[in-house]
Amino acid sequence: MSANRTAIKGWTRAQSRLGRRNAFPVVLLGLLGTACALLQVACIAWVLAASLTASHATAALSPSLPTTLVAFIIAAVLRALLQVLSEVQAARAGMRARTRLRRSTLGSILADGPRLLRANHSGALAALAVDRIEAVDGFFSRYLPAATLAMGAPLLVLIAAWFAQPLAALVLLCCGLAVPVMQALFGIGAAVAARRQFQAMSRLQTRFVDRMRGIATIVLAGRTEDEASRLALAADELRVRTMRVLRVAFLSSAGLDCAMAVAIIVIAVHDGALFLHPGSAVLLTVPHALFALLVVPEFFAPLRNFALAYQDRAQAASCAEGLAELPMASTPAVAPHRIPPPPPGGVSLVFENVSFAWESSRGLALDALSFRLDPGETLLLVGQSGSGKSTVIEMLLGFITPDRGRVLIDGNDLASLDPAALSGLVSWIGQKPLLFAGSLRENILFARPDADAAALDAALHVAALETVVADLPNGLDTRLGEGGYGLSGGQAQRVAIARAVLRDAPLLLLDEPTAHLDPETERAVFDSLRHLARGRSVLMASHSAAAHTLGGRRIELRDGRLVAHAEPRLGVAS
Q1: Which of 150, 172, 254, 562 has the fewest CB atoms within 10 Å of its CB?
Q2: Same domain as 420, residue 320
């Protein structure tokens, strides 16, 4: 827990340093707005003093009254313009910060890949990248400027009040010092309440995403009422915790109102007693007394804004707690570099004593694994579940790096390759391809959006999708549901093959590409894969008995070790 708190504090300090640079224009505009407010207060005090003392000094005060009113109007207009500019700059500061944080968060999620999903729910990650970072907007657009203005703007007011009436400045200073104490007391509760609110929100989102994915199972099991009740309970928990956050915020505001009321009462009582004392110079002190009294709200206005924005800091701390759980992007030992395009016919692949463990308590997933794949060769990885086949695939996709040993692609260390260069070398087809809600054309062109019609037709031919497209109501423009709803498993796998054809990468990785398919569909998919494998290096992990039809060598893994090796039974491109 202490380490987590340290990480949160470190994140908050680092973000504060970055955010203050963008908040500087907001602070400057706020200070100028305070100066305009002081000018307005002085004008009001002068006009009121002129009205209250007209019987004594009408001749002396009336010539300057029009000038005072004009000054008040100018100050009001300038203050309004400064307020608008300040809000614009604050919105830009929050926008820049959210963009930077989302880019960093998504980079961490994408860099860790499937490994991250083993320890985190996708709904929680989505809540972190969307809702939590969205909630941090107030930290950069409101809290950071307000924290600086809470010190600078009251100081300007104190200086002005000191010249008008020193005792009033001392009263404001004492009451102002009490505000941070109350903020600290209420701030602890606000941070705890905000953290619990975000936890409740994450649980609700996670449960909702899970139930939407399994809606068919829920309906068939007759559990719709139970699941609806549980969602209602989760939503009610979020409501209760949100109201607790607002309760703490209201208490904080009430404490500040009490401090301001005390300041007004003390200054008003003191000045009233002074005016009632015989021999007091009423004409000379009325404008100063009115100024000291009217300036009290302006003194507490920046403190009030800070109190309202303090909740944003609590939300930022809650976001930091989620971001602290994300793995830091690892820095490669060698600077990433690009490689020249490989020659036609595939690339070479070498594993040299590669060891890797997902967790130390689970042992090694790969244990000193060594093998070689020559350009244009096909290599079949077989073994029981948990033998390390998918770990090899994920390592070649760049999601994980070896704990020991190294992986070479055309003689280049995988750890030193630029991610964009690695992406251009590899095509991947998994057990269940991810299809997006959209047209079939959009899903195929996802691999290469700039592909022309000839390339698209060639991909459809290799993937044997021409008949499928002809049977669809709108051909390639037929809309698919989320997850490829509207296509069978075999048809979805053909879409993945078409994507791989468009990518035209020299290394093809196949991870159980025919899992969950019936034998007839499996044979058809393997026919398309044989066409796709020509002129490429192919590494396939599979349990299927029909996998040998793809040809190439066969190696068996057990507990992350190479235990058997077989020469090719059927050639494809070699």
Answers
A1: 254
A2: no
> pTM of the prediction?
0.60
Tokens representing 86? 């300040």
Residue 437 sits in a domain whose CATH number is 3.40.50.300
Helix axis angle, 453-462 to 519-533, nearest 10°? 130
Partnered with residue 439 across adjacent β-strands are 479
**In CATH, what number is assigned to the domain containing residue 290?**
1.20.1560.10
Residues 53 and 9 in one domain: yes
Helix axes 296-324 and 2-52, enclosed angle (nearest 10): 160
Q: Looking at the structure, tell me whether residues 140 and 229 fall in a common domain.
A: yes
* Same structural domain, 374 and 292: no
Q: By residue range, what is the domain housing residue 138? A: 2-324
CB 310 within 8 A of CB 392: no
Q: Which two tokens stand for residue 198?
A: 């975000």
Query: Between the CA atoms of 548, 554, 558 and 559, what dihedral angle is there, to the nearest 10 degrees?
Result: -110
Question: Mind listing the pLDDT tens digit for each residue in 500-539?
Answer: 888 888 888 888 887 777 778 778 888 888 888 888 888 8
Residue that terminates a domain, selected from 291, 324, 357: 324
d(CA 506, CA 425): 6
Burial level of 155, CB count in 10 A (0-12/13-18/19+)? middle
Band (pLDDT 50/70/90 cuts) for residue 74 is: very high
Sequence-distant (6+) residues with CB within 8 A of 168 are 161, 267, 270, 292, 293, 295
Tell me, what amino acid is at 302? P
Tell me what pLDDT residue 160 has.
92
Q: How far is CA 311 from the centre of its chain?
A: 19
Give the count of domains, the chain: 2
The least confident of 69-73, 275-279, 466-470, 559-563 is 275-279
Examine the domain organization and report whether 417 and 489 are in the same domain. Answer: yes
